[in-house]
Amino acid sequence: MSKRLTTYIMIALVLGLVCGLALNMSLADGSSASQARLESLAGYFSIVTTVFLRLIKMIIAPLVFATLVSGIAQMGDTKALGRIGARSLAWFISASLLSLGLGLALVNLFQPGVGVHLALPAASAASGVETAAFNLKDFIAHIFPSSMVDAMAKNEILQIVIFSIFVGVAITAVGEKAAPLVRAIDALVHVMLQITDYVMRFAPFAVFAAVAGTLTERGPKVIGQLAYFMGTFYLSMFILWLVLLAIGALFIGRRIIELVRYVREPLLVAFSTASSEAAYPRMLEALDRFGVPPRVASFVLPLGYSFNLDGSMIYMGFATLFVAQAYGIHLPLATQITMLLVLMVTSKGIAGVPRASLVVIAATMPMFNIPEAGLLLILAVDHFLDMGRSATNVVGNAVASAVIAKWEGGFDRAEPVSIEPPHAPSGHGPAREVESFREI
Left if phi > 0, otherwise alpha if psi is -120 to 50, otherwise beta: which for 122? Predict the structure, then answer.
């Protein structure tokens, strides 16, 4: 099932490219009327993508809650929970600094903003990115849910993680009396992963619609105008991939190559839909098949989606200096290091914020006298950049989960990369998730 779905997603990606470019080239004539038609047509494509992403959102809250609570309950030791949490945060902070530093270093090397011949927006122009509600104080308060029902309704992953930790620790403290609840939550994991399988069968259609809709509306021209910026940014992300995988190989050896094979499907989903969230359910399954114990994956992965967004990190440093270069603003090395530290702190509040990376960049630019309106230069291609950022976030969290699993005593038995559907008699697939909880 997994191998076939990966093939279907690749086919859908190529068909989406062909269809979107063909529609744009046949209907675009430069007039406002034709642009309106293209936007209307792209809107119809977006229906399919929206439905898929809403289905994914439907899954995430109960899946995070069930897997995390069950994993903590099966640890049977709150010290293990604290140890995994401390190791996770240490890795996330180190990876964030690495990603930000690499982004700043490479944008200085490639200098994609130097000599930009596009008409720059006025320094007083608005970027359209809302930053008023973004501050660290509100973020810290926002971590703790006032209502679990509200947190689940809004898919506030960090709040769900906090509540799940309380529930899991309480179950551990209660002991045998909570055994029926643990069995019910284990069953919920099984059910949610079966639902995940149903939803992911819709992924190729969503990938086709997402790519076709974007290229129908914007066409190849918008990519060509900022081709060097996009090209150097993707090269920078590729270098970040190599660095992260090389560091991962120091801890898990040659199995790092296997890890990439296991996560290729969620990676493709994240890239094609420009959504890390869309890849979450499949990431959980892929890590389980790779051998990451569920008690580790179910804890590290939700935290990673809030604190370990390596693709977003490298983008923040890269895009901020790109805009400065485009305006001809020179920033000394000391100022750039200060910017790195500011981005490091402010980026920890981006979980759940729409267009989070742009919000952080827009909030940071005025601190260094960079016109916020410079974001208008990259907004047109931000969707294509977001595809790469989302895929990089998947790679970063996969490596983090595998390394922390190694620190926590090693891996479970790996399953084949290509598995049968969950209802197959082979016993592979999501059913193994529940079995693994019982084996710990």
Answer: beta
**CA angle (149, 358, 138) in 5-degree steps:** 45
The whole-angstrom separation of Cα 80 and Cα 172 is 12
CA distances from 234 to 183, 322, 333, 395 (A): 45, 14, 24, 14
Closest C-alpha to 52, from 19, 12, 94: 12
- d(Cα 227, Cα 392) in Å, to the nearest integer? 20
- Classify residue 149 by its DSSP letter: H
Percent of the chain with pLDDT over 70: 84
- Does pLDDT of 420 surpass 50? no
Quote the DSSP letter at residue 370: -
Q: Which amino acid is at 344?
A: M
d(CA 6, CA 23): 26
Between CA 196 and CA 207 the distance in angstroms is 16
Tokens coding 243: 């660095």
Which has more confidence, 425 or 388? Answer: 388
Question: In this structure, which long-range contacts are made by residues 371-374, counting pairs with CB atoms below 8 Å and at least 24 apart in sequence?
Answer: 371/121, 371/123, 371/124, 371/125, 371/323, 371/327, 372/126, 372/127, 372/129, 373/121, 373/122, 373/123, 373/124, 373/125, 373/126, 373/127, 374/120, 374/121, 374/127, 374/323, 374/324, 374/326, 374/327
pTM equals 0.77
Give 207-233 pLDDT, tens digit per residue: 888 888 878 877 776 666 678 888 999
Closest alpha carbon to 193 in 435, 393, 434: 434
